[in-house]
Amino acid sequence: MGGIRSGRHGNSKATTSQYPQLDLRRWQREGLLVPGSSFWRLFGWGDEVTACVNVCVEPRRVILSYGHRGYQGAWQHKQYTVWLDRTPCNYGATRAWFLCPGCRRRVAILYGGNIFACRRCYELAYQNQRESDLDRGLHRAQTIRMKLGGSGNSTLPFPPKPKGMHWRTYLDLQIEAAKHEQVFLAGMSTWLARMGIPP
């Protein structure tokens, strides 16, 4: 078995959204961390399954039976243990954590590559770390529009004030969205001019 980062190609930093994810917080919310139980997770693009994992839950660990399509297209199969740790929460409950098989750090999410390991082992960036300032601004404006019940499309009229929202809050959100949209449009105009494309 190669190292954790074996099979990566290119020098650009991949993002977490490009990798299959096992989220222990979600499993705990869904009541799946019952010793003796097992369940499946499938991953893929469109209708094609590119990875699958069967999770067998034991008191202090999970056993992953992991199959994934390698870079040459052939299926690869592995079975290994991922140890769990628990920390106390308020009111006597505990929170479960994976102990990453690569570095033994306590993490909530593992990402599937050669094996399931943490974000740092795979040197993954979060998607928003790859966004430019312009993309981030547009995303914020779209989020505001959708929060108000409208579409993220900035060419459509700004959504009306939701019932129960204070006018001051609504106007502040409208100003913030407009500011981000103006920055994005100014940046796009500059980029189009640099490319020699008429606006």
What overall form do the CA principal axes indicate?
extended
Can you tell me the residue ranges where pLDDT is under 50 for at least 5 consecutive residues?
5-11
Rg? 22 Å
Rounded mean pLDDT score? 81
Count of domains: 2
Q: What is the terminal-to-terminal distance? A: 53 Å
The helix fraction, in percent, is 25-40%
Number of strands: 9
| H/I helix tally | 4
Tag the structure with descriptive keywords.
three-stranded antiparallel beta sheet, 2 domains
Topology of helices and strands:
Layout: E1 21-23, H1 24-29, E2 38-45, E3 48-58, E4 61-69, E5 75-88, E6 94-99, E7 106-107, E8 109-112, E9 116-117, H2 127-130, H3 133-147, H4 167-194
Antiparallel strand pairs: 1-8, 2-3, 3-4, 4-5, 5-6, 6-7, 8-9
Helix pairs in contact: 3-4
